[in-house]
Every structure is written in structure tokens, then in C-alpha cells.
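Q: Here's a chain of 75 amino acids. Please give me its 3D structure as C-alpha cells.
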Amino acid sequence: MAKANIKKLHDLHRVIANYYIEAIDSGEELGSGTVAAINSFLKNNDITVDIIEDSPEQDLSNNLRLLIMDKEEVG
């Protein structure tokens, strides 16, 4: 099996992050499986980045923080 190159990995990361951002931004309630998948994506891939404004990672991080705060207020 050929090893993925860095550009392909970055592209895949961007696509997955954007998918999760769209799921959060849809306004629909996220199931526990989706939230778990988002957390797994961030943790299992040991994703560490210097977050800059207007990046998919920044949007995902902010949206997850707001989602968690909303659930805590309701629960």
C-alpha cells in the first residue's frame, strides 16, 4: 500500500473538519454518535494545530464549545 502524502492528509483533514462543521451548523440536534465521532477525530488522530482565525479547525473548536455550553444550560 502506498503511503499517503502530506498534501492528501491535509486535504482529508480539511474535508472531515468541514463535514463536522456543516453538521454542527445545520442547526439539527447532533446524536451522541456524531459528537463522539467528532471527539474521536480530534483525539485519535492526535490533532494539534496552531489555530488561526478563519480556519476550519477554529470554526470546529468554537462550534463544539458553543454546543457543549448549550447542552449544559439545558441539562
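Q: Can you summarize the key feature?
A: Residues 6-25 form the longest helix (20 residues).
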